TrEMBL record:
The keyword Chloroplast does not apply. The chain crosses the membrane at residues 77-97, 118-139, 159-178, 185-205, 235-254. One of its GO terms (cellular component) is plasma membrane. This is ABC-type transport system involved in multi-copper enzyme maturation permease subunit. Keywords: Membrane, Transmembrane, Transmembrane helix. Pfam families: ABC2_membrane_2 (PF12679). One of its GO terms (molecular function) is ABC-type transporter activity.
Amino acid sequence: MFSVYKNTFRRARTTLIIWLVLLALWVLLELSVFKGMAQSGGMNDLVAQVPEAIRSMFFTLDISTIGGYLNARVLTLILPLLTIMFGISLGNAAIAGEERHGQLDLLLSNPISRTEYYLGRLLAMLSMQTLIVLALLVYFHLFAGLQGINLEEVRVLDAFTSVLLLGFTASTLAMLVGSIVPHPGLVLGVSGGVLMGSYLLNAMAPLMPDLKDLQPFSVFYHYNEYLPIRNGLDFTRAFTLAGISVVFVCAGLWRFNTRDLSK
């Protein structure tokens, strides 16, 4: 299992470095935009021009504060998208990608069971996602300090823990789908479609009363609906996200062990 873990990290090191560099530039840009708009006093004018329906989705907190800005732009929009993209790409590569390129049979010809392979890829995938989120935490605190932005009043660690759990949900879902069908394109489509539907359900529920009872079925309801950047991590919702990932892992492992990989 650990040989699979090390091999996965070795093969992904270039991709990881690119992600880490680009994320550093993105964080620097986001904080620079916030500081510039805060100094010019244009935050509230910008929000006033946004339709009420959009404000209810993205501008729950005062956007002129760092907490409100991070919630509206980073935690509600950009970071979930990046997290899901990264997670799905990892989960897709773990099973479907290797099988599509004819590498899976070769890897399993070594003295390693399917379970060991699956768990090795899973552990590497979750470790990479954790590394990315830890790097984001460092970047935000470092660049905020350099620009004189105070993060002490916001719960960045709590919010990013929820980001990490969302990423785990995306990657384990993609790994599950890849265990069912050996087609990377289909894995991307199904995983992305499920998460997009989940996002829209959570976003539209406050505007459509008929959807309100269904909102808890969205992973995004458990991700950021309770505003962890202000209120801290809700352990019930955090464990719900973790539990969903565990279900995906168990289902994917069972299917991977029982499917005929020659088909």
